Amino acid sequence: MKLLLDTHTLIWAGLAPAELSSSARALLTDEANRLFVSTATAWEIATKVRLGKLPGAERLEREFLDQVTGAGYELLPISAAVALRAGRLAGDHGDPFDRMIAAQALAEDMLVISKDTKLDAFGVRRLW
């Protein structure tokens, strides 16, 4: 199964695994699954580290590519078509990072591993 990690899922998987639900942990450790991280996650982490909203994630921000690939995750780039789709998603949820992750999940037919119930409004398949 193709799975897209939400930003908090990636952070918790590396820094605070106890925060993950048992279902999320099972999905992340099942070798039959392909695990993806959006390039939007790099943008979100860098932004939140700069603003002081992610204490403890500075190393992840500095070593993002090494950390992601070292954990066995695949990086999912953002295409122009997906960026346009993110901007066109209906609803008033204004978080651009969530919109991008939702658009990528829809375009790539992926299940999102996320605690964020606001993603459901975009019609994504989400599990926590």
Automatic annotation (TrEMBL):
<protein>
    <submittedName>
        <fullName>Type II toxin-antitoxin system VapC family toxin</fullName>
    </submittedName>
</protein>
<dbReference type="InterPro" id="IPR041705">
    <property type="entry name" value="PIN_Sll0205"/>
</dbReference>
<feature type="domain" description="PIN">
    <location>
        <begin position="4"/>
        <end position="121"/>
    </location>
</feature>
<dbReference type="Pfam" id="PF01850">
    <property type="entry name" value="PIN"/>
</dbReference>
<dbReference type="InterPro" id="IPR029060">
    <property type="entry name" value="PIN-like_dom_sf"/>
</dbReference>
<dbReference type="InterPro" id="IPR052919">
    <property type="entry name" value="TA_system_RNase"/>
</dbReference>
<dbReference type="InterPro" id="IPR002716">
    <property type="entry name" value="PIN_dom"/>
</dbReference>
